[in-house]
């Protein structure tokens, strides 16, 4: 794929900018409504726009909107018109009108540049051969503009990729380099890393189920192996920012046959592995540091976890490679993440430490 900042792109961007102006103007009459589309069998099974983006080896996009307005009104979380442009690996230029809004209850408050929800128009997706069923997805942005925070978005992306390495019962994500163009004219375009998160319905359909919102559930609703994998992953990355009874930072998916309940974790910015500058210890569990691991499941004996401990040990090299092979992560952060993961495996390798972490300290 041609990179947004390569020498071949300025002319393309200039042309795209002129097109974007007219597209944004037209959207002012359109973005508050959407077309009702009757789906054909083909459209129901067509590739989604997320599918199309995630197969690009090095995805770079340009996103244009009135970002001055978006940031000033980020706490309201209202949609506004935008235009997304990207060039695929075959050199084809794609330009799509869409709506965007700031999202995230906590990050909307503290981020200089909040996470976004991107929502496309059904009729445009249908016309381009994409499934209109999955018309939106999330974009996790850099949040704060310090050098450390620019790397933190990569660290959170890698938390998702580590879970992808362990199970398919997970959100799929795609790293992206984004050039933000402010249509208000304030400031020059800025390029940052971010990542896209699969649409929740797309994820649940892929897993053969439907999302449910059922409160006061506990981990026992999951099969033993899946439950222990979920809990051990959260322990590995040092994440205590989730609750099953309140469906906090978890999506619950019930299989179509009703026999399986899956809990899909997301939002890892408070995890010790990510270690954002704004993360705070979880006082509910007497956590003294976000780097402190707490096993948030009940275990009667260590033998109960023997299978999942073997599973994590089997995947150790693969998990480490996920971090090692991410070139966008600088040396300092790569070293820190690997050291933190190593400390997890030190616990698994010691029966005494494991018993203390999983049995004596389990909640």
Task: Please describe the topology of this protein.
Blueprint: H1 10-27, H2 41-45, H3 49-54, E1 60-65, H4 67-72, E2 80-87, E3 93-102, H5 107-110, E4 116-120, H6 122-127, E5 136-140, H7 147-166, E6 173-182, E7 190-197, H8 200-206, E8 209-212, H9 224-236, E9 250-255, E10 261-265, H10 306-314, H11 316-324, H12 331-348, H13 351-360
Parallel strand pairs: 1-6
Antiparallel strand pairs: 1-2, 2-3, 3-4, 4-5, 5-7, 6-7, 8-9, 9-10
Helix pairs in contact: 7-11, 11-12
Describe the structure.
This protein has 363 residues and is an alpha+beta fold. Helices cover 36% and strands 18% of the residues. The protein has 2 domains: 10-204, no CATH class; 208-360, no CATH class. It is built from 13 helices and 10 strands. The strands form 2 sheets. Strands 1-2-3-4-5-7-6 form a 7-stranded mixed beta barrel. Helix 7 (147-166) packs antiparallel against helix 11 and helix 11 (316-324) packs antiparallel against helix 12 (331-348). It starts with 9 loop residues before the first helix and ends with a helix.
Short description:
This protein is α+β, with helices and mostly antiparallel strands and 363 residues long. It has 13 helices and ten strands. Helices cover 36% and strands 18% of the residues.
Give descriptors for this structure:
363 residues, alpha+beta, 2 domains, seven-stranded mixed barrel, 13 helices, 10 strands, 18% strand, globular, disordered N terminus
Class computed from helices, strands and strand pairing: alpha+beta
One letter per element, helices H and strands E, the order comes to HHHEHEEHEHEHEEHEHEEHHHH
| Secondary structure: number of strands | 10
Strand residue percentage: 15-25%
Strand adjacency order, main sheet: 1-2-3-4-5-7-6
Instruction: Outline the low-pLDDT stretches.
Output: 1-15
């Amino acid at each position: 794929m041609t990179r947004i900042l390569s020498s071949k792109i300025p002319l393309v961007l200039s042309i795209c900018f002129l097109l974007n102006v007219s597209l944004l103007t037209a959207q002012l009459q359109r973005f508050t409504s959407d077309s009702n589309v009757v789906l054909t069998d083909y459209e129901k099974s067509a590739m989604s726009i997320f599918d199309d983006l995630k197969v690009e080896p090095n995805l770079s996009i340009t996103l244009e909107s009135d970002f001055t307005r978006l940031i000033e009104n980020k706490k309201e979380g209202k949609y506004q018109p935008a235009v997304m442009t990207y060039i695929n690996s075959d050199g084809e230029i794609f330009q799509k009108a869409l709506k965007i809004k700031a999202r995230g209850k906590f990050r909307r408050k503290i981020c200089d540049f909040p996470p976004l929800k991107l929502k496309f128009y059904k009729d445009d997706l249908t016309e381009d051969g994409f499934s209109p069923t999955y018309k939106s997805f999330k974009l996790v942005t850099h949040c704060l503009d310090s050098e450390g925070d620019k790397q933190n978005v990569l660290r959170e992306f890698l938390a998702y990729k580590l879970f992808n390495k362990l199970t398919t019962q997970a959100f799929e994500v795609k790293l992206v380099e984004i050039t933000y163009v402010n249509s208000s004219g304030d400031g020059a375009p800025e390029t940052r890393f971010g990542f896209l998160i699969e649409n929740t319905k797309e994820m649940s359909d892929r897993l053969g189920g439907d999302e449910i919102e059922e409160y006061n559930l506990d981990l026992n609703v999951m099969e033993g192996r899946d439950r222990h994998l979920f809990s051990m992953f959260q322990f590995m990355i040092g994440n205590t920012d989730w609750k099953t009874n309140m469906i906090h930072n978890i999506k619950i998916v019930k299989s179509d046959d009703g026999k399986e309940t899956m809990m899909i974790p997301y939002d890892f910015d408070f995890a010790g592995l990510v270690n954002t500058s704004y993360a705070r210890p979880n006082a509910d569990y007497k956590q003294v540091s976000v780097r402190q691991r707490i096993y948030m499941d009940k275990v009667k004996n260590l033998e109960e976890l023997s299978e999942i401990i073997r599973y994590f040990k089997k995947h150790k090299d693969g998990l480490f490679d996920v971090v090692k092979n991410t070139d966008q992560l600088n040396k300092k952060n790569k070293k820190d993440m690997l050291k933190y993961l190593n400390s997890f495996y030190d616990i698994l390798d010691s029966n005494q430490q494991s018993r203390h972490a999983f049995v004596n300290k389990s909640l």
